[in-house]
Request: fold
Amino acid sequence: MVQCRICGGPVEEFIDFGRQPVSDSLVTPEAAGSEFFFRLAAGVCTECTMVQLIEEVPREKMFHEDYPYRSAGSVVMREHFEKYSNQLLGSELTGDAPFVVEIGSNDGTMLKTIGRAGVRHLGVDPSAQVAEFAKEQGVRVRTDFFQEASAREIAEADGPADVIFSANTVSHIAYIGSVFRGVDALLGPDGIFVIEDRYLGSIIAQNAFDQIYDEHFYLFSVTSVQAMARRYGFELADVQPLSVHGGSMRYTIARPGRRTVSAAVTEHVEHEREAGLARTETYHRFAEHARDSCRDLVRLLTELREQGRSVVGYGATAKSATVLNHCGIGPDLVPFICDNTPAKHGRLAPGAHIPVRPSEEFSRPYPDYALLLAWNHAEEIMAKEREFRAAGGKWILYVPDVHLV
Ligand code: SAH
Ligand code: TYD
Ligand code: ZN
Reply:
């Protein structure tokens, strides 16, 4: 049995998606077929409850020069980060020469607001193209992996930090102990380490099985983050549910005793216990539900093809790699996927080899059905593409189960 990457306890495997490619590695047509594959399986630690992958993909295969994901691709995410930046500017960052570090600063969407307010900051991100883009926006970036060694250098040069912020990144880092040791070296005595991530409670409740993919090495809950913070010498002081990405959570971590622990922490831990997040049956049920969704989706797409209906994918997301590859959905069922990320255009979805085209092609002409692979942005996308439904088109969703909108 695999050992928990955090506490060393036994990890019980509950889902196996088989051979999967690197989710954000959209390939050029020439490179198709020579991709790296790994076994995508997840388990739950029966001691600390942390949900984690069984196999780790080497970080250089995921985060490199060509990493295409950009936070700014969603207006909702841009507004979300702008709002929290302003909140930090008015609360944690009012002292003398405050300093903020962001782990996984990507295209600079979060730090842009903080930089414009004249506050000292540093983004840390290993993916060179997105880091360059952030620099062009006036954001200060160190193109590097955040870990103990780089954090010590940052602490030496610029520290201590008042706030270390990280959205949708800490869960991507299997070697998380090194991150916490880095935070320990860099964070001021009263500073806060704020983590935002997809929330396990929402993933289970919505059967959002495609949130399991290579980059999401961990799926966090309040219970598991509290145990993790303690193990590394910190304290989970507050949690706040967020609606983004289909249900997320903001975890505020501090040095023990430095902040009042809010009632929300204990309330969520209790709620998670009631929701069965500490019981392995919950995860086995989830896996069964995931298999049902995959079967129903393939059945629907096959029927539509037999009826001669056109189907297009919407959103060449990383999470869609799990669905497309596990279900064996290729260009025969979904001829192309529309996406607004320039770096994804002209490439093929990894493993499934479905071509990715600019969003403008969605209406030329509208298909009969659109498979919403970016279902976590459903509201934003459906509002933007309202003419599709007005023209008689239907959205296919597979979360929480396969249905048409
Ligand atoms: N924070 C942004 C981007 C999330 S994508 C948002 O929420 O939208 C994850 C980012 O983490 C990528 O840009 C990737 O390059 C970066 N990343 C991966 N491992 C990292 C590490 N060890 N340190 C810092 N950034 C890392
Ligand atoms: P997202 O679901 O945020 O993440 P992940 O890749 O981690 O699963 O990715 C959203 C994708 O959808 C991204 O490639 C951009 C694309 N997108 C559009 O094409 N149009 C839109 O209006 C939005 C919001 C996203
Ligand atoms: Zn554990």
The two ends are 42 Å apart (CA to CA). The pocket of S-adenosyl-L-homocysteine (ligand 1) is lined by residues 63, 67, 69, 71, 77, 103-104, 106, 124-127, 130, 145-147, 167-169, 172-173 (CB under 6 Å). The mean pLDDT is 98.
